[in-house]
Amino acid sequence: MEELTLTTPAVLFSAISLIMLAYTNRFLAYAAVVRSLHDKYLKKKDKQLIKQIENIKRRLYLTRAMQIYGISSLLLCVLTMFLIYIKQQTIAVWVFGTALVLLIISLTLLIKEIQISVRALEHHISDIENN
Hints:
This protein is mostly helical and about 130 residues long. It has one domain. The protein has 3 helices and no strands. The radius of gyration is 20 Å and the shape is elongated. This is DUF2721 domain-containing protein. It comes from Confluentibacter flavum.
């Protein structure tokens, strides 16, 4: 196996930073939708709104998990760089491997969240098509 250098985990910084920005934007969009649904629900207690709120809640929790795994991955990349700096190569390799696994989990959750989002939008589209 090739020796891990400071450059390897540092390369992930920009990728993880962009991913975290996208996750944050999703989170903010969901927050706006939740506030809107909340106001609508207070005016009219509709069952359909409850379903939408449950869907958004599920997506919000997935986004939170995506953020936690992404941030943990970034944190472990920083720890990897520190371990390389203090010449703890073997530990650094394992920590970096763990960071990659956490990033994989985060991206897998993103796929799941996107699928839920698409199903919710398909439901709205079918409502439009039926009317």
